[in-house]
Write the structure tokens for this entry.
Amino acid sequence: MDPVVVALAKAAGLEKALAEFPDDVAVAAAQAMNNAGVVHMPSDPAAEPWPPMRAGLGL
């Protein structure tokens, strides 16, 4: 497995998943890396990509 993926999984606290399901961790990492280009950073850092999550709004 890619050492970067192992390091990221450990940094995320996924040691148990890495030990028990290394194939699943590798597939999830590959899927995340393949979709990273789809996520666009907002031009305004204060902008939220979705409406604020407050109870009662829009209900």
User: Anything to note?
Assistant: The chain has a mean pLDDT of 85. Residues 3-38 form one domain. The chain is about 50% helix and 0% strand. Residues 15 and 44 are 36 Å apart (CA to CA).
